[in-house]
Fold:
Amino acid sequence: MNTPKVVIIEGSPRRYGNSTKLAFIAEKGAKDMGCLTEIIWISDYEIKPCIGCVSDDIMACKYPCVIRDDFNKIAEKLISSDGIILSTPIYWYMVPGHVKILLDRMTSLENMLLHNGKSLLDGKVAAFIATGNDAGTSTTISYLMDVFNSYGCHIPAWALAYHHSYEDVLNNGPAVIDSYNIGINVCRLSKILKEERDPWYTFNVDFDELRKYTESEISKLKMSPLEERVARANGGK
Amino acid sequence: MNTPKVVIIEGSPRRYGNSTKLAFIAEKGAKDMGCLTEIIWISDYEIKPCIGCVSDDIMACKYPCVIRDDFNKIAEKLISSDGIILSTPIYWYMVPGHVKILLDRMTSLENMLLHNGKSLLDGKVAAFIATGNDAGTSTTISYLMDVFNSYGCHIPAWALAYHHSYEDVLNNGPAVIDSYNIGINVCRLSKILKEERDPWYTFNVDFDELRKYTESEISKLKMSPLEERVARANGGK
Amino acid sequence: MNTPKVVIIEGSPRRYGNSTKLAFIAEKGAKDMGCLTEIIWISDYEIKPCIGCVSDDIMACKYPCVIRDDFNKIAEKLISSDGIILSTPIYWYMVPGHVKILLDRMTSLENMLLHNGKSLLDGKVAAFIATGNDAGTSTTISYLMDVFNSYGCHIPAWALAYHHSYEDVLNNGPAVIDSYNIGINVCRLSKILKEERDPWYTFNVDFDELRKYTESEISKLKMSPLEERVARANGGK
Amino acid sequence: MNTPKVVIIEGSPRRYGNSTKLAFIAEKGAKDMGCLTEIIWISDYEIKPCIGCVSDDIMACKYPCVIRDDFNKIAEKLISSDGIILSTPIYWYMVPGHVKILLDRMTSLENMLLHNGKSLLDGKVAAFIATGNDAGTSTTISYLMDVFNSYGCHIPAWALAYHHSYEDVLNNGPAVIDSYNIGINVCRLSKILKEERDPWYTFNVDFDELRKYTESEISKLKMSPLEERVARANGGK
Structure:
C-alpha cells in the first residue's frame, strides 16, 4: 500500500501565531502516524474571488477553473491528497475572506460530481483547527464541517481543535492534544480508506420505488392527527 | 463479522411529515447496504431536561445519567449501535427543544472519555437529515455535525440531506437521493470500521515535546513582522 | 410617558453560575437607565415541548397556546414587556433544550402576525447573554439574534455579552461591562420606541408594481453575461 | 431634521440575479419611506484581504486602514450613512469570500471604539438580504446579524429577507415583501434615531460596584446545590 498524504492548509497571513502552531502539531500527529505531509500557506498564493458561473449555468463550473491565477496549483495538491487539515484564524467569528475565497473556488472540484459522477474531493478525510482571540470557534468549525462534507469528504472522530484567547496556544493543553489527535485521526482514517476507490455518492437510485416504499411505511404508522396530539400533550405523559 | 447496526432517531412528534419520510428512505439505504436497522421515535420517550451537573463538577456527569426517565433506554440503543442517523424537523432554524434535550443528555455518554478514556459514542458513524417549511437547514446540519463529532463520531462523506419547503419531500429528488446515500454511507463506513476497536482519542501525548517541536518549526519560518506584511500588501503581489 | 419594562429571562437551572451573574448585571443596567425590571427563572416553570401544529395548518398556531402548562404565564410577561434580555447557559454550543422549548412555543406569539397583522412580540427590544465553560458563544448569540428578529424584535447596538471559560465571570471585565451595556441599551431603545405603536411589518405592498420597478432597474444595468465576467477576472484589475 | 441616508451594499458580481433584485426592492422601500439611498456594487471595488494587524497589536488597527486600495472609499460611504442594507448571494451557505473580505476590513471602523470611544459604525441601522440556489440563508443571516451588531449597529424588527431556490425571486412573494419591509424599517428606525448622537457603548462602568452588587444578589437566592437539583428532577414537577 502506498503511504497516504495529508495536506495541511494554513489560512493565516501571520506565520508565528496560534493557527500556525496548531497546524505544526497536527502535521506532527499525521507524520507520527505514518503519513506523508505538506503544508500549504494560502497567503503565498494569489486566489481571485469566485465569479459565480454556477448560477448562470450549473454545468459551467468545472475543474480546472476558468480563472487564471494560483488556484489550480493548490487544487492539484488537494486532488492528490488523501487527507486535508484546514487550520484557520478566526476573523469576526468565521474564516477570513481570503480563506473563504479558497472554499468558494473549490466548487470547481466538487461540481465534477455532475460532470463525471465523482467529486474530486470525494472520499478524502478532512479536519479543522480554528484559533482566534475571542469568540467564533464553534461557528467556524461547524461551518467547515458542513462545507467539506458537502464536497464529499469524510470527517473522522474528534476532528476539531480550537483556541479562543490572545494567549499562546502552546499553553492550552486541550487545544494542543486535540490538534495532535486531528493529525493522528486524519492519517488513521486515510489509511483505512486508502483502497476504497468507489465513489461515495451514487445516483443509481430507483426514485419511484423509494417513494412507494416510503408511502407504504408511513401508512402503516396510522399516526394520529393534530387533535389527538394536542390531547396527548395535555393528558400528561 | 457480525452485521453492523444503524439506529435512526426520528425527532418529529408528527409521524407523517417530511422528516419521517426521509428517515424511512435512509433506513432503506442502510438495509439495502446490508445493515440491521431500528427507528427510535423520540416522542415515545419521556426525556427530562439536563440539569447541568457537569458545570458543578466535571466528573459528576457519567453514564448512566442520574435523572430517572427514559433517557437511559435510548442511550442503551445508541451504545449498542454502529451508526446513528438523526432525522429532525426544524423549529426556528434549529432542532426542536425536545431533540436538543436528547443531545444535552448525551453528554453523559461522551463524558465517559474522562472516566474511562473512551466516549461511549467513540468511533460510531453519524449522519443527519433536517426538514422544515422554511429556512434553517444548514444551520441545523452544521450544528449537528459539530456536536456528534464532539461526541467522538465519524461523519461519512455526503452525510447530509435536507428540505426547506411545505411541499411533500417525496417530490424533491435530491433530498430523496441524498437520504438514500446517507443510509448507504453510514452502513458502508460502519462495516469498514467494525473491527476498529481502539479509541479514536488518545491522551497519550508528550505535551512538552510537542511544544518544543512547534517552537522550533516556527522559528525556522523567520516570518516577517507586521510592518513587512503591510508593505507586501501595498506593493502588489 | 409610562416607564418601559424590561424582562430578563434566565435560562439556567443553576442560580449561582455565570449566566445568572450576568443577568443581574444587565438588570442593574436597565434599572440604572430608568426601566422597571423582572427576572423570569425558566426552571421554575413547566413548559412542555411544542407539538408542531403549524406544520399541520399554519393558522392552527395562535396565542394562547393550546398546550396546558406554564407557558402562557411566561408569555403574558413577555407580551406586557418593552424589552427582553435572554441570559442562557451554553450546552453543546447552543441554548439548552429547555430554553429551546420556550423559543419553540413562542411561535404562538409571533404567528399572531397572520391572525391579527401584528406579532405579539413586534417592536420589542431584545438582547442576549450566553455563558459556557467552552466554545459556542457566537453560535448561540447569532442564532438568538436571528430568532428574536424573526419574532419581530429590534436588536439594539451592542446587544451581546458572553463568557467561554470555567472561571468566575465576575473576573471577566469585558463580559461584565458588555452585560451592563446590554441593560442600558435595551432600556434606552425601549424608551425611544415607547410611543411607536404601528406594527413594524406591513403587508400593504403593491407586489406587481415592485416587480415591474425591479425588472426595469435591472434592465438599465445592462450587465455583462458570464463570458465578459470571466474575461474581466482574467484581465487583471 | 436632515434626511437619513441608507446605503445598500450589493455583494454579487452578477447584477441580474436574485440578490440584486431584492436590493432594488429594499432600496425602493427606503425611498418610499423618505430616505436618501445609494447602492454600492462591491465588485466595482478592489478590496485586498485583511492582514490581521489587530492580532499583532490591538491598537494597530484603526481607520483609515493602512492597506492602499478601494476599501477606504467604501468606508467613507458607510461612515456618512445612517442605515446599511447588505444584500448578498450565498456561496457554500455563507457570504462569498469577497464580501467576507469587506467585513474583515470593516474592523478598522469598529476598532475606533478603542481609539476614540466610539465605533465609526456605532448606532447605524443594519439589515440583511441573502439569496442562493440552495441552503444557507439562516446561516448567513444569523452570522451577519452577529457581526453588524458587534460593529455597534442596531438591527430593526424584521431585518431579514431570503430566497433559497434557482427560481426568479420576483415570483417569491414573501421574499419581495420582506425586502420591502427591510427598506421601510431601516429608514424608519434611522429617522427615529437621527438625533441620538451619544455613543451606544459606554466604558463608564463601576466594575467593583457591579461585582459586589451581583455577589449580594446571588447570595440572596440561597440556591440549592447539585444534589437537591437532582432530587427535584427525579421527584417530578
Remarks:
- The mean pLDDT of chain D is 95.
- Chain D touches chain B at residues 48-49, 51, 53, 56-57, 60, 66-68, 93, 135-139, 141-142, 162, 164, 225-226, 229-230, 233-234 (CB under 8 Å).
